[in-house]
Amino acid sequence: KQEVTQIPAALSVPEGENLVLNCSFTDSAIYNLQWFRQDPGKGLTSLLLIQSSQREQTSGRLNASLDKSSGRSTLYIAASQPGDSATYLCAVIFRGPGGSYIPTFGRGTSLIVHP
Amino acid sequence: DGGITQSPKYLFRKEGQNVTLSCEQNLNHDAMYWYRQDPGQGLRLIYYSQIVNDFQKGDIAEGYSVSREKKESFPLTVTSAQKNPTAFYLCASSISRSSGTDTQYFGPGTRLTVL
Known about the structure:
The complex is a heterodimer. Chain A is 0% helix and 61% strand. Chain A is an all-beta fold. In chain A, strand 4 (30-38) and strand 5 (44-51) form a beta hairpin. Chain A is globular and about 50 Å long. The model of chain A has no long low-confidence stretch (mean pLDDT 93). By secondary structure, chain B is mainly β. Helices cover 0% and strands 49% of the residues of chain B. Chain B contains no helices and 11 strands. Chain B has strands at residues 4-7, 10-13, 19-25, 31-37, 43-51, 54-57, 64-66, 76-78, 87-94, 105-106, 110-114. In chain B, the strands form 2 sheets. In chain B, strands 2, 4, 5, 6, 9, 10 and 11 form a 7-stranded mixed sheet that branches. At the A-B interface, strand 4, strand 5, strand 9 and strand 10 of A face strand 4, strand 5, strand 9 and strand 10 of B.
């Protein structure tokens, strides 16, 4: 059974810092990996999706990398802002019974960026 | 507007009652998912459907039921057999049942409280 772990569980930093959020998974036979943002009491917003054949994806100040062999992904946030405060979730998609694609989520990293 | 809608936003249930949570999407997506989120936890998969009239159990299906009679609708029933139903419920969809490369899109969630 695929397990997804996110470290750290919580992070509080001053504005302007560059941040690294980590996601590890136990089964390297993944199909893709997705990073999400969740604001309190809200649904999830997709940030970046990395296909299994890719090594990284970038969107603005966000960069996500994927190393399947070591079972790790990293979300890098450059020049953090108070508006980045949210919970960041990592989801791994793997192949399940009958050829279906099953997502497994980590518990998330709760980020606070203070002015 | 295209997207995923969930209703109601808040739902209160008495013990022993069944309740149904609505999830509708107008994105023409094949795949739909139901997740449960508890405080400080990641998302846990309840049920998923890759195509109309077909669905599979996720990790925590006991006490829940679903139907997929139409492509755009995937209602979730929380039955009285679910021992601890108070949680935040999220519905998601993705484009293709045959691809592991597409993004999941989430609804705003329904918060269920058992009185």
